[in-house]
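Field: sequence (string)
Field: structure_tokens (string)

Example rows 1 and 2, in order.
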Amino acid sequence: MKETVLFLTRHGQTEWNLQKRMQGHQNSALTTLGEQQAEWLRDRLEGENLGAIYSSTSPRALHTAQILRGNRSLSIQQQASLMEINMGIWEGMNTDQIEQEYPLQYSHFFTRPDLFIPLAPGETYSQLEQRVTPTIERIIKDNEGLEVLIVTHRMTLKVIMAHFLNKSLQEIGDLPDILSTALCKITLTDNNTTINLYGDTSHYQ
């Protein structure tokens, strides 16, 4: 296998992030700062020879990917399987309200993903893992030897990074948080998987 490089990031800050509302499969627009964060990362990636760009179908991720593309003539390949975890009835709710009404599940969501049981319709972390991991593996297979940018979401990205770090679902809760447009970088060869960056925000200004 030729050296394949994955650049993975979370979308820029959104209106609901500011309002502390859970998004999941629902969406809210990028804030001015969210667009700025994407521009900072775009400038950081300017010298990279990207061969492909993938994005979740959520508008906030797609908008971020469009900014990150810059002047490149690449199309953005949208993948519904890269969407955020489905949070069921929590979507649109304020996190303070969720924590008050569903304290145990809220705690499990962040600290013990293996024990998290969603409120219908919702997804477990295991279901999220089962939809996103095959997508990442297919992206790697389809883009061998290339540099690839993937724009996704907070918990989805933690699950992806846990996969490459050989962490269990239980251990995902111990991984550092991933901020808006924070950058992860993974280099893959036949024999090695190297995590070069995890949640790096050195492009913030």
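Row 2 begins here:
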Amino acid sequence: MTTVPRPRTTEGSAALDRLLAEPSRAVLAFDFDGTLAPIVPDPRDARAYPGATAELARLSSLVASVVIITGRPAGLAVEYGGLDNIEGVVVLGQYGRERWEAGHLDAPEPPAGVQLVREELPDLLRRYDAPEGTWIEDKGHALAVHTRRTPDPDAALSLLRAPLTALAERADLTVEPGRMVIELRPPGMDKGTALTRFATERGATSLLYAGDDLGDLAAFDAVEQLREKGVPGLTVCSGSDEVTALADRADLIVDGPPGIADLLGSLRTALESAAPRD
């Protein structure tokens, strides 16, 4: 029989126990890239880890809500995750600025600063001699500079961090660091704010959030703040060798997207086993 892995902290264990005891009011929240989907050299090639989408679909009928909170445009996360035909899964894209639910996408217009960055970013990379392999991902509401395909990704990030920060300040945008990437995006919304609003909206009495990168720290903060308000929360790190900040704070660490898929399966099995039968 598959068992749900136990968190290493008292707070995480309490949250897991509440989730399993009262799933009808539990919210399960997940990052996409690096959590539900493996990190790949080109983000356009990212797809959900085999079996993860099917487990999300089954879990969505067993808990109050399943939500994916991602820096990607919501529509892309739906496409790459194969989520378009799954009932009960909500996708909050662009750190919560966009919302996809039941086939409908709600997306505001991006602020003017995004266009400024779009126009100036190629010249900035040329002026600072960004190494070969550096490339720009246009997310519509944000732009990201990736260095994963350069000979020395960390050195490329160090070279570009200061000029990108200066450009973001001129454009009234914020800088979001990540795994071999620096993103310039609108301020005022992050994964923590998005998670708090969603959990409150759904009346969650327990909460799980799983992520892998620095942008997920805000969601971990939100889980801790909700705990202080009486909502037990469990933080899960999709572990990697590239980022350790989340692992240091997580209640539970699993082995990347395969570990997340296994966790989904064990949760689903436990909830189905506990469900009353006619």
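free_text_note (row 2): The mean pLDDT is 94.
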